[in-house]
Amino acid sequence: MMNRIKTKPELKGYLALVLHAHLPYIRHHDRDDYLEERWFHEAMTETYLPLIEVMERLVADRIDFRLTFSMTPTLLSLFADPLMQERYRTYLDKLVGLADKEQIRLQNDTALLPLAKRYSERFRELQALYESFKGNIIAKFKQFQDAGYIEIVTSAATHGFLPLMKTEEAIKAQIVTAVRDYERHFDHKPRGIWLPECGYTLGIDRILKQCGIDFFFSDSTAVAFASPQPNRELCAPLMTPYGVTAFPRDPESASQVWNAQEGYPGDFNYREYYRDIGWDLGWNQIEEWEYIRPYVLPTYERVNTGIKYYRITGKGTHREPYRPDWAQDKAAEHAGNFMFNRQKQAEHWHHWLDRKPIIVSPYDAELFGHWWYEGPLWIEMLCRKIFKDQHTVKMITPSEYLQEYPLADVGKLNESSWGRNHSAEVWLQGKNDWIYRHLHQAEERMIRLATKHEHLAGHKKLRTGLLKRSLNQAARELMLAQSSDWAFIMDSGTVVDYAVRRTKDHLTCFHHLCDQIDREQIDEVALAALEEKDNCFPEIDYKDYVMIHRLSPIPIIPDLNEWKALQKETKHRPNVFMLSWEYPPKQVGGLSRAVHELSEALAAEGEIVHVITTSHYGAPYFEKLNGVYVHRLPVESSGDTHFYHWTFEMNLAMIDHLVRWKEHGGRIDLLHAHDWMVMHTAREIKLSYGIPLVATIHATEWGRNQGILYSDLQHKIHQTEWKLTYEASRVYVCSAYMKDEVQRIFSLPHEKVAVYPNGIRIPSSNTGLVKRPDFLNEKDKVVFCIGRLVYEKGVQVLIDTMPNILSQVPEARLVIAGSGPMEQELRNRAAHLGDRVWFTGFVDDAYRAQLYQAADICVIPSLYEPFGIVALEAMAHRKPLILSDTGGLAEIIRHGIDGYKALPGHVESLAWHITEMLLHPDQAAKMADTAFHTIQQQYQWSRIAKNIQQEYHKLTYYQPDWADIKG
């Protein structure tokens, strides 16, 4: 009988489980008897410490999982505050004492006594866990993030509902403060953000982009009702016109957990949240009340203690004792059911989607553990089940998904939130609408003061330090008053008095500070007391509220004398005008960096280079920067702001600007257009003035979509690219592979297309200071590979070489950096090799530098590669290099001189070359030195610029203006 070959099912999609971790700023420095402060203690005990336990167990068992946490700055401030840490220790001590007393009280109750013992053990476990990291819970979460298991994103500083803020300055201040606070805790800027309440309105994406945010989460209606209607529906993220990606909430998975009637947490086997001994005891017996009284508030208000003995049991009032074993079985069953449904979703979407779908399932973090006691266990079971059987669905973080699929459809999102009716209704109705006139007035006052004192000038009587402290504290009080929690509480009708008092208190403190600043009479003692009371965001900066100068609709240099002076300065030699929709500090993709590097390199060679680009917040409309004349034009969009239509508005602005330049006597001797977005400007100016045009095609729509153009938009872009190459006298590409592609798809003559590779900046020579990654031993001979984990990158071939390599070099250790759809398959393929193959997951720039420094050799085993910037990185780090003899890679090195070229897909060829380098390190080092010399000679921007400069000179010559001849 023939053995049937079993093939693993194809991965159909991804699951992003997102936990929104938030508490308002409920620190009260003078008292510890506030009911609201117990929210923090309960969240720590029932949610955040149990989630850390879950992740520690998963890591210990080598379960590769992915979770995404959004952690609000106010919650981080509570985590990090020494006062709150000490109060939490006291809270845990009291819980342990109460649980011990419960064992005595229930010594004759055979049903409840085991639960009392369980609570006593449980609270002691949490004490030990908390002390194991000395109360620094942020450092613990950071550890999981640094290891690649979780991604942490930020939120607005005080979780203010952004769509109901009046001014752009107030929204920006909330976001900038959050980004700054995140960086303080996690040592790098956040890539993503949780918009409070998922509240989105037009323009927020522009502010996010200005603050360096790449993605955010939205309600499903934001994407479902976007304009134009998204091609991929809710199966993939949607990019806004400003280049920020929105991940929509998946309604189906949300309902399975959240639904009040049918959601998992309502199962009869789970612990009942509302039956707590803080409420059960002492209603009829004085002895019971005296027993429980020390564990309620000093005001004798009843509260939850966290000790609950009953399960939900049924829909009536009858309750039976909690059975942990039943609850654990049910959590496993529900985890399996959740995974099964996500698999069916992914399979359904995969049939028609052009990429693997992503199911985004966001929840309040405190649902897990606090409201649903078994929630953390359910997450653990889900992670284990997906890891064990992840052939259909795999867990992923948003950043990993964007690394795999950096391109998305573009659309204008619908205004929405994840609140009632998907609108702002919860935060704006009859019970809370009164707060906004006061908050809006405070915004405007803060902006006026910040703008007036932007440079801390104008006050003769006030010391600069005191004035700055007062302005910063005013900003802090305004942000605390803006917290969306206060309006939410007023709507829900829970602790309304507290929410009203907090709103009024913060606004009162804000106005008192502003009055003192205006009078130039700051009470330093009162200020210090307020700083002690509300001490969040130590790096807050009032200047974030400085008035934003709105963009002028006329894109010209306002001073005509400066305009004339500039033209006189640039009139003596040919002027090259680069056209690019993005340029630093605006940086959406790699185009910005390429144009920036090339333009400055050309300027360094003596060319007069102008860059015509679009405006960006904080950047001047015009500047001469490192020899380049940068013209940044505001774009007044009209009608539909879909990116494709926005580019048309951008081209109108560029054409108008260049026509004005010519009409005022300026020179334009050559146009250099970068990609399709600027085609209309390039063609119009070329035809109007007879100016030579060259174009660089950085990528093609045909290539991005593997030769299949699905939508009308893709066909339009493809047609625009062809038209640009048709109009250009010369077309530049980065590799011979790209040359063949553009010649073929655009029917271009061979001599019209020239290859100028991408350049690279050589890292600084301080590599000796880079720390070696902790997982590596000193004796390890590190074979390093970095890239997206997809089939065409050939990592599977590299793994298959390891047995052969280890037989000759036992110290060899393969380190694979990056993530992608094949990651689990590759991990399984390498499992038998133990720690000789190490997967790092996604790495940031700093960690990437560490890995390069630790590498003995670098390997790029691609089966298909258009260029290979990774090869240049390895060469720039002076690391011996082995790559596949394929595509653009084959053009980079000379075999046996700069490195080795192995046969693509050939295990023995690749293994021999790797072994040869490891066994002969001196020879390998010589090749690395030669390769380093090669990139210095061929892949430095200065050399590339000189070659392009020669091309320019063939097309440009001096044409004196008639005004010069008449003069």
Automatic annotation (TrEMBL):
Record carries keyword Repeat: no
Keywords associated with the record: Carbohydrate metabolism
Any Pfam family matching the protein: Glycos_transf_1
Top-level taxon in the UniProt lineage: Bacteria
SUPFAM superfamilies referenced in this protein's UniProt entry, alphabetically: Families 57/38 glycoside transferase middle domain, Glycoside hydrolase/deacetylase, UDP-Glycosyltransferase/glycogen phosphorylase
Residue intervals of the 1,4-alpha-glucan branching enzyme C-terminal domain: 438-545
Keyword GTP-binding part of the UniProt annotation: no
Residues covered by the Glycosyl transferase family domain: 776-931
GO MF entries: 1,4-alpha-glucan branching enzyme activity
Entries under InterPro entries matching the protein: 57_glycoside_trans_central, BE_C, Branching_enz_MT3115-like, Glyco_hydro/deAcase_b/a-brl, Glyco_hydro_38_N_sf, Glyco_hydro_57/38_cen_sf, Glyco_hydro_57_N, Glyco_trans_1
Any GO BP annotation: alpha-glucan biosynthetic process
Ranges for domain Glycoside hydrolase family 57 N-terminal: 16-406
CDD domains linked: GH57N_AmyC_like, GT4_PimA-like
Residues involved in substrate binding: 249, 266, 418, 485
GO-annotated cellular components: extracellular region
Family per similarity comment: Belongs to the glycosyl hydrolase 57 family.
Protein name from the UniProt record: DUF1957 domain-containing protein
Species annotation: Paenibacillus sedimenti
Lineage: Bacteria, Bacillati, Bacillota, Bacilli, Bacillales
